[in-house]
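hey all, quick one before standup. I had two proteins in the batch that finished overnight and I want to keep them in one place so we stop losing track of which output belongs to which input. First protein below, input sequence then structure tokens straight from the run.
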Amino acid sequence: MKDKRKAGVYRGVLTAIVAALLAAWLPRAHAQAEMLPAPVAWALSQSEIPENAAAFYVHEIGAQRPLLAVGATRPMNPASSIKLVTAYAALELLGPAFQWVTEAQATGALSDGVLEGDLVLKGRGDPKLTLENFWLLLRGLRGRGLREIRGDLVLDRSYFAATEHDPSRFDEQPTRPYNTGPDALLVNFKAVRLSFMPDHEARLVRIVAEPALPQVQIVNRLRLTNGPCGDWVNRLKVDAQGGSAATRLTFSGRYAASCGERARSYSVLPHAHYVLGLFRELWRELGGTFTGTVRDGAAGPDARVLAAIESSPLAQVVRDMNKFSNNVMARQLYLTLGAEGAGEPATLEKADRVIRDWLATKGLSFPEMVLENGSGLSRVERISAQHLGQLLLASFRSPVMPEFIASLPLAAMDGTMKKRLADADVAGQAHIKTGSLTGVRSIAGFMLDAQGRRWVVVSIVNHSNAANAQGAQDALLSWLYQRGADGGCCAAPR
């Protein structure tokens, strides 16, 4: 009986000691979590970025509390890292195998290869309806015997609600393809790819357009020069003039022969006239005849589907979107969530509601989050580093986790991380989504440390010197990896 009493006393004393030690340790652990690691703090100061303009959040998968949370609750502009919200929601709500279908429908009688009526192209928001895929759709029409269209080309773009889009509003760069607005029938990102090719014998620069659209006139006044290539893009002087149906691009300035062949894409036509010009050229090359014009509309109840083409599966689309941070694809996907989740036509408000309802089903509430278009090409989108980190933690428990993580750029290997951390130990060990705007730099994703433990890592900087923040953010990844190599342990108990 005495032994039992002694054992009970010992257990009580031991429990009290553990509780006292834990009580003493937790504040220190909490304080450590709110202190930047020395290498990160040094790199941040070298960049002349104050700590109150940055946020950091590091959390080991499976741990109860984060290892690091500095400024993590501040609402901040994450730039393209907000694509993680759009991508994860799409993979769960639509499924990795989801595909977009674009149809070609006939509204009149088709006899002996002649369509006595309109050809309707019905778009459903395909984020990657490339030049090659559009050609395959038209090749399908020719393969089914259609050779002459005596009506118009009608574009059914009703899957997305009609809105006005000003491509110059964001940064006054209206010809840059990333400023292309979303469209239910977005073909080839509405881009014309120009190749600049030096001709050493003729001492001139040739410019070749793909696709070569008759509505886009190229005026070449470039001078071929000697010397280093350097920043060849900023030495190009581009003047875009024209209206809704045609445009003229005039190039002047210097182009160094040492640059070799370079390419750059431009977006200069409205959606409807881009599709019309591309359709005419490809249809003519395929041996077809078309003399009509283009207009918006919809197929009647008697229309027949003549040909259709499916997109790549969503998992592949998300990978292309995240690896190369494609804003146009993200905006298309964001609106697709609105159409599929809240009904056609898609609107930004519907997409926002669908995503917030989905977060609620997962027990996640991000009251500070602001979504404008789901791409990060925005001055108003906001989220905290902590909530972005919590989203990543939740995704690791999701059935679509493999597809989601595989969509992120791999440090020093591919995508927007290909040229970062090439000589660091963390190379190949971190899947990181990057974000970049004037005054914004962010990273968010997953990494393995030297002991094989997986971490969620988020860092966001909003400051006029944010362009210098890469050193601090790379230092964060290297510090966390090396911490594992040194035998460091998590900051909080499991």
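OK second protein, same deal, sequence then tokens:
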Amino acid sequence: MVGIIRIVFATSFIALSLSLQAFAASNVGSSTAELERIKALFDSKDPITWVITGDSITHGALHTDGWRSYPEHFAERIRWEMGRVRDVVINTGISGDTVPGLLADLEHRVTRFEPTVVSVMMGMNDAAKGEPGREGFKKSYLELIDRLRSETDALILLHTPNPITPVATSRADLPAYAAIIREVAAEKGVALVDQEKLWNEYVAQPRKDLNYLLSDGTIHPDNYGHILMAHNLFKVLDIFDPNANTCRLYIP
């Protein structure tokens, strides 16, 4: 009898351990799962509605000097080079905007389009509030994710903003805001393109300079910066092809 009890106890303990391991794995891999769901969309012939929103960087205003912004490179990559001509790419980025601004205008800029995927790059202007604004920023960003999930069926893809130069003293707290975006992505299990990390890795290479990627020497990507952003996005989504024109564009 004692032997039977020991076997039952051991079996139950193993089963519980496996359950806990599975639960932990599912939580650790939640953001990866969301990203894999986005990647899987490319295997379907069903058209995808992409809503790409953010601030002036996504808007692509002024600092591109007439060149394509990263949402435009993305549209060329998927709608022409990948032959997904029925996909729709909608850019609703607004220069100077913040997460609270997007929340106040969410129906007009996102939900009315019934998106398949929503891509968000915010934080550059929010960071102007510095350390005192961090808690409010995270609270607003978490609310944004909750509303996107409750008001749409969209998959969510977040971006950290690009790094800036020390000259941009009003946004010196930007790295902390990028870290908050990573926290939000992990907590909510959404996909992430860590532009800040990828940019820093790029400019750490020999003969690379952040100033080559910024139009004003402070915060705004120039035409080359937007190419780098697009390439980072392509690579995260596994749609980068070195033989494709958009993927062969020069970055200094």
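Flagging for whoever picks this up: The mean pLDDT is 90. The two ends are 75 Å apart (CA to CA).
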